[in-house]
Amino acid sequence: xxxxxxxxxxxxxxxxxxxxxxxxxxxxxxxxxxxxxxxxxxxxxxxxxxxxxxxxxxxxxxxxxxxxxxxxxxxxxxxxxxxxxxxxxxxxxxxxxxxxxxxxxxxxxxxxxxxxxxxxxxxxxxxxxxxxxxxxxxxxxxxxx
Length: 145
Hints:
By secondary structure, the protein is α+β, with helices and mostly antiparallel strands.
């Protein structure tokens, strides 16, 4: 597939912000908020490169033995190629190595692609946050032991 996964670095942030904006930018993040993730010792901030360009990114935090997946975003031009699956797999591997025993996330109920990705990784729905998103969409709580 030619996809390279690695930890994000400061020079990657402009491309990360660009992908984030192309996807609607929700939840909203500034460049400085992404930069802050780079400095957090409990954070995993990964990028996937393909053909010399940033194809996707993911952010998560390992807190008190729990991996909290915050964002997984794939450039619209590179969806349906398994890049998101690679990023989620790498987040889970790094979390296990860091001692996390549970992974959790929230996903929009109508986001079938993301739900399918997480379900294929073994996540299951364990709860709901009604009207969680700005547009009134419910968030589904998912977890993977």
